[in-house]
């Protein structure tokens, strides 16, 4: 039996000052132009910006490589900056924004992905607060417990394991921790497992950074583990950075990667609109 450390509840920490930066590329191999695709009458990236604003961010900035996204951001009253088109990741784009604005090293910068139109403002705020209270950490992120075998053994679901202080030890697409006595006797029955024998955490791709780390990030060499797992956060662990993990027991709604995700999110907004209409009538 294993017992992994859990961190503070969402409501336990006071919200600190923080800045939200939304990296948004126009190009997307699986869903071209997705940042500007309409959901409930507004571009997707605008929904994300509105949620970051609702989270209490002192400033919300859309960081993009496309003039079209700049224009849409301004149309809806959001600040946007044009960044280099050569960035390999959203973190690299955030690093450029930090340099453009010259923020102090202690500034907390939340990376709210431009394809997460249902990102909860409370979670954004709580991850920022978690970093503010974890002085030894350069990064904070979030995770939630999962029990479905289909998710635990799905390589598209990123898992994490923590130390006793709630800091990430590792992130993997593999099922971690590996419960030897349960999983090993008969691998063919793993998908039929009713419940894991110990807590398994699914990583939520929301990050808060200290600006000092974002300044360092472009100079950090890509790590072998990062390349093997295709998980950028392993670069930080490889280079000795600490990542604080906030545990929430509320499962976030997934973002938009493919056309089926877009249809799901549009249906979600339509259902909300229908519910509001019924309340009025």
TrEMBL record:
SUPFAM superfamilies: Nucleotide-diphospho-sugar transferases. It holds the Pfam family CTP_transf_3. It catalyses: 3-deoxy-alpha-D-manno-oct-2-ulosonate + CTP = CMP-3-deoxy-beta-D-manno-octulosonate + diphosphate. GO terms for molecular function: 3-deoxy-manno-octulosonate cytidylyltransferase activity. Pathway: Nucleotide-sugar biosynthesis; CMP-3-deoxy-D-manno-octulosonate biosynthesis; CMP-3-deoxy-D-manno-octulosonate from 3-deoxy-D-manno-octulosonate and CTP: step 1/1. It is found in: Cytoplasm; Membrane. This is 3-deoxy-manno-octulosonate cytidylyltransferase. The lineage of its organism: Bacteria, Pseudomonadati, Pseudomonadota, Betaproteobacteria, Burkholderiales.
């Amino acid at each position: 039996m294993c017992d992994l450390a859990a961190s503070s509840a969402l409501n336990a920490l006071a919200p600190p000052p923080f800045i939200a930066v939304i990296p948004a590329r126009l190009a997307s191999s699986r869903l071209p132009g997705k940042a500007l695709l309409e959901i409930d009458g507004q571009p997707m990236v605008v929904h994300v910006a509105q949620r970051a604003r609702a989270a209490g961010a002192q400033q919300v900035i859309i960081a993009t490589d496309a003039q079209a996204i700049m224009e849409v951001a301004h149309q809806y009253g959001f600040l946007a900056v044009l960044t280099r088109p050569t960035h390999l990741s959203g973190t690299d784009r955030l690093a450029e924004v930090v340099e453009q604005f010259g923020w102090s090293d202690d500034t907390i910068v939340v990376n709210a992905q431009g394809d997460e139109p249902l990102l909860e403002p409370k979670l954004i705020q709580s991850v920022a607060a978690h970093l503010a209270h974890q002085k030894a950490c350069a990064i904070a992120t979030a995770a939630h417990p999962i029990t479905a075998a289909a998710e635990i053994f799905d390589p598209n679901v990123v898992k994490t394991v923590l130390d006793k202080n709630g800091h990430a030890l590792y992130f993997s697409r593999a099922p971690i921790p590996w419960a030897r006595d349960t999983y090993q006797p008969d691998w063919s029955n793993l998908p039929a497992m009713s419940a894991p024998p110990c807590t398994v955490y699914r990583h939520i791709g929301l990050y808060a950074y200290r600006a000092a780390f974002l300044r360092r990030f472009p100079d950090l060499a890509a790590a072998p583990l990062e390349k093997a797992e295709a998980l950028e956060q392993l670069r930080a662990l490889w280079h000795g950075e600490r990542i604080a993990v906030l545990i929430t027991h509320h499962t976030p709604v997934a973002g938009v990667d493919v056309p089926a995700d877009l249809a799901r999110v549009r249906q979600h907004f339509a259902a909300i609109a229908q519910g509001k209409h019924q309340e009025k009538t």
